[in-house]
Amino acid sequence: MLKNDLILRNPLRQLGFETEDILPAGALGAVLAHAGVGKTALLVQLALNGMLRSRNVLHISLNDPVNKVNIWYHELFQHLAGRYGGAQVSSLWESVLPHRFIMTFRVETFTVPKLEERLSDLTEQGIFSPTMMIIDGLYFDESRRSDLNDLKAIAVKNGIHIWFTVHTHRHESLGLDGLPESFSAVAGLFDLVLELQPERADVHIKLLRGKGSNPAGSALLLDPSTMLIKDKEL
Amino acid sequence: MSSTVEKVRNIGISAHIDSGKTTLTERILFYTKRIHAIHDVKGKDGVGATMDSMELEKERGITIASAATFCEWQDHEINIIDTPGHVDFTIEVERSLRVLDGAVLVLCSVGGVQSQSITVDMQMKRYKVPCIAFINKCDRSGADPSRVIAQLHSKLGHNAVAMQIPIGLEADFRGVIDLLSMKAFYFEGESGEQVRSDEIPAELLADARSKREGMIDAASLFSDELTEAILEEGAISDALIMDAVRKGTLSRKLTPVFLGSAYKNKGVQPLLDAVNRYLPCPADVGNTALDLDHGETLVDLLPDSSLPIVALAFKLEDGTYGQLTYVRVYQGTLAKGAVIVNTRTGKKTKIGRVVRMHADQMEDIEAAAAGYIAALFGIECASGDTFVSPGLNLTMTSMFVPKPVISLAISPKDNKSQINMSKALNRFTKEDPTFRTHVDDETNETIIEGMGELHLEIYVERMKREYGTDVETGKPRVAYRETITQRAEFNYTHKKQTGGSGQYGRVAGYMEPITEGEDDFVFDNQVRGGSIPTQYIAACEKGFRQCLAKGPKMEFPVTGVKIVINDGASHAVDSSDMAFQAAARGAFREGYAKAKPVIHEPIMKVVVETPTEFQGAVMGLLNQRRGMIVGAQDEGVMTVVEAQVPLGEMFGFSTVLRSATQGKAQFTMEFALYRQIPQSIAEKIAEEVALRKKSAA
Q1: CATH class for the region spanning B601-681
Q2: Cβ pair B642:A106 closer than 8 A
Q3: What number of C-beta contacts closer than 8 Å exist between A and B?
Q4: Partner of B336 at 20 to 30 A CA spacing, among B9, B39, B136, B144?
């Protein structure tokens, strides 16, 4: 019951996408923001939403250790399910956990072939087969093009979609498409690009690029106190 | 004995398995001239390290029981407790930390902050023990102290600050640069006993200067004088920096980091200097006791030798001359001939001998003053007891003792073993509160309980070696539990009329699951208007509690149940305590059946550190054991796989892991939580329980 409630309450539906996963299999998505605005929090909520629908999520972090990533999930889940009873929430948490696998790499040693090797370790032994992947902490510029092409190929081959966090810098100038120049070079590979924009006390979730755009998308906010996605009206 | 308490340090040395704690302690004892030769843990001379005095420890190369010793360095007296690294023996670590004022956290420069370091750090936090860090094994290939410092920040949340930088690393590790004195230190002589100071090598000077600046910056947060000195851009004295670092360390807001290689005799003497400089003396640490005469109010203890005695027995050992009791004196002086009272038993004892321990050798002393650790002979007590002067009624707060998660049936092979086995069990249970024993009243088997397979294995082995007791062991059994999952009402009448006065009692109310964080059992009396007379309420609670030991479902202990009684009935003649106890038992059975009971099993947090090439195989092994893999962390050549695995599936895992990884992986395991077991497994357990009952009958 609680599970269904949490799925229905998912405000991401407001972005106006046809599928629950927002991204189709084989597609790449990106969340752009300055440091500390809430990129990881947004993606963890997408992951939690998938996990509640029994989708397997592989979370790859290049900055944080496993425990820290785990805390993100736990905290956001607690906030999401906050108004429900304790015993119910903890049993639901236990039941969604098997749908998540955290993998961490050191950013300097992360390579796509290494990731592919790890992924096949998991899938071939039947340990874990993801349908969604999050890569948090990858540095973007033109030199990443071939890596991203390889990642896209992995996504297509395994029928998964991949979300990336993209760290933008205030000093960086914007291209004609409104995207930071370093990211612009590879933006063509992405099917969907969201941006988190802090405005006064709120953080707005804006759709910069992608099919199925809905003006309602701009009505989504990230609540800075809980880091949860919410409708503007709520 | 030093005259002032300011020059006393009670420290522990804590770390992950194989980080080199015992080797480091051995070097400390050598440099402080307590021993005259160095014996390595698994050395070729077959002597073993001095602190590993138990035969079994020497054989396995691990420290099991912590040994206490003392030494002197630069006019300071240092009492050291060498603590075991394996997580099964965590109670030893906890007990040591309870009586220590400070600790040295030893980390491996290759392995970094490993799982056990995290556990030990949590324990230090619980007992607010200030610590300094020592990054050992800087001579090993793959040594990277700066990565370890970064991990201290990221994994443990320490404000770790390097006080030294290495001169060379791995095979080229030659010495350390002290950022306080800005001198290079080399360790020469056959066993590194001669410390030579020299100018900093030119190529490292720039790095040393910038690191020193960082260190002073971090320290300045704890001293206004230092901040002022920095702003005035004048000369900064060493004393000013030391004072600031000490303040930071004592408040647990700064962790000074030192480097070396104990095995290669490098960096140990500066670490001893740091123990004296930065770790607290007994007077720096506030200790409290509970006053039993005044409703357990907290009383501050003062490290003053002239006040009445308050001391805590934190470790017992059975030696050749009887029971040896390790005590920490918190207040007063424990002197030969003094009379002390055990607060728990009220028994008065006259102190016969006070000794100071050095691993398994001892030295008689006249008295142990406040702040010291000593050992007493011929005192009958249990671990954790408080001793006070007659007239006082204080007890030190009880220590946190985890519940056992695994049990094993043992039976002696012959009659002689039978007698010795009970002697051994009696001693072990007194020494180690996490080790418990009881006789199963149905099967008549002696059951031992503990914190893990290795924990029990070691005790069985010790029975054999120390008491000549041969025992047969059964299969290890997991401590399953029962609990309910939904609210259910009960309304039960106990009525019996068999001639003479009858029995009558009615108990009504409901039971519900307890949410996390509360006690295992809650009893709430909401009876209004005296439908159950007040004098029978206690009997009702007793009746419910009687049902907890063996649950109606599969006879496992019941936990997480809240009972609320709100109605009932009594009879003027036929009601009695007995009748209401029976009514409560009936009510429990009635409600329990409706409350959807389930079985829970202990889930262990298993952390495997494996060379990266085997990580796929390791994950496969964990997966086969119903393990849920939380994550895999890439640490360069090694990968750390963290999983939650049911304890019942972990038996024999070490052998399987060894063969799957050519012996290159190691794992630690500790209790994480209880979780409901899947239906198929529940059926299997039910069959096992039925079979066991049948064979017992």
Answers
A1: alpha beta
A2: no
A3: 67
A4: B9
In chain A, residues with a C-beta closer than 8 Å to the C-beta of B516 are 86-87, 90
Q: Which CATH number fits domain B486-595: 2.60.40.1180, 3.30.450.20, 3.30.450.40, 3.30.230.10?
A: 3.30.230.10
First and final C-alpha spacing in chain A:
22
What does the angle CA B638 – CA B643 – CA B647 come to, to the nearest 5 degrees?
125
* Residue from A57, A66, A120 whose CB has the most chain B CBs within 10 Å, to mutate: A66
Which residues, at least 6 apart from B288, have a Cβ–Cβ distance to it below 8 Å?
B298, B299, B300, B301, B397
* Average pLDDT value for chain B: 83
- Tell me which chain B residue has its CA closest to the CA of residue A98: B628
- C-alpha dist (Å) from residue B284 to B6, B9, B279, B568: 8, 10, 9, 57
Q: What is the ipTM of this complex?
A: 0.84
Lookup: tokens for B58: 């020497």
Query: Under an 8 A CB cutoff, do B631 and A70 touch?
Result: yes
Instruction: Work out the burial of residue B606: count CB atoms within 10 Å of its CB; fewer than 13 is exposed, 13-18 middle, 19 or more buried.
Output: buried
* CB–CB contact B642 A66 (8 Å): yes
pLDDT tens-digit readout, A160-213: 999 999 988 888 777 777 788 888 888 888 988 888 888 877 888 888 877 655
Q: Which of B5-9, B451-455, B661-665 holds the top average pLDDT?
A: B5-9
> What number is the average pLDDT over the span B667-683?
84
- A68 close contact with B: CB closer than 8 A: yes
What is the per-residue pLDDT for B517? Answer: 56
Q: Which residues of B touch A121 (CB under 8 A)?
A: 615-616, 619
Look at B152-156, B172-176, B218-222, B480-484 and tell me which has the smallest mean pLDDT: B152-156
Interface residues of chain B, partner chain A, Cβ below 8 Å: 154-155, 513, 515-516, 615-616, 619-620, 623, 628-636, 640, 642, 675-676
How does strand B354-358 pair with strand B373-377?
A: antiparallel
- Give tens-digit pLDDT for B252-303: 889 999 999 888 888 899 999 999 999 998 888 888 888 888 777 788 888 8
Superfamily of domain covering B406-478: Elongation Factor G (Translational Gtpase), domain 3 (3.30.70.870)
Q: Could you count the other beta carbons within 10 Å of the beta carbon of residue B552?
A: 14
Range of the domain at A183: 2-17+25-211
Residue A203 in domain: yes
- How many structural domains is chain A composed of? 1
More confident residue, B388 or B94: B388
The answer to whether the CB atoms of A102 and B513 lie below 8 A apart is no
Q: Which of A185-189, B16-20, B235-239, B252-256 has the lowest mean pLDDT?
A: B16-20
For B5-197+255-284, the fitting CATH number among 3.30.830.10, 3.40.50.300, 3.30.413.10, 3.40.630.30 is 3.40.50.300
Residue A228 lies in a domain: no
The CA-based dihedral angle spanning residues B528, B532, B538, B543, taken in that order and rounded to the nearest 10 degrees:
-120
In a domain, A216, yes or no: no
CB B222 within 8 A of CB B244: yes
pLDDT reported for residue A159: 92
Across the interface, do B632 and A65 touch by the CB < 8 Å criterion?
no
**Quick one: what percent of chain B has pLDDT higher than 70?**
88
